[in-house]
Amino acid sequence: TGLANRRAFDEQLAFEYSRAQRLGQPLCLVMLDIDHFKSINDRWSHQAGDLVLQRLAMLLRAEVREIDRIARWGGEEFALLLPQTALPQAVEISERIRQAIAELDFSADVPGLQVTASFGVAQLENSGSYDKLLSRADQLLYQAKAQGRNCVLSEDPLC
Q: What is the distance between the alpha carbons of residues 10 and 12, in angstroms, rounded to a whole number?
């Protein structure tokens, strides 16, 4: 994918978390997971799964700002770190990306393949640690998957 791995992302998260707290700036973390990825590999092939991962990485790079950080968290899961971004904006960005993923066209390579993703969006709190931020985003991601997938869930139900 050409994206940072989990270890590199952990370092970026620690740095941005510290900076956001020190400067009193907002910071959001987005965890996203490709829905039913195992069935993509099983039905179409691991080569098709690799294509999905590569195309998703390209889409993510195109959709975020230069100051944002993207990583392949593991398997079919990705993480986005959005410095200087409040929760409503992070939800808006996530929703835009969710829609773009659903609109990806794989018909030239894998006819019939449709891809969706689920998102969990958490915002920095004044206390705690970046581990809590990560845990909250991950928890919201799993809630999004449990509620039917292909959606964005955040800490703020109004978003």
A: 5
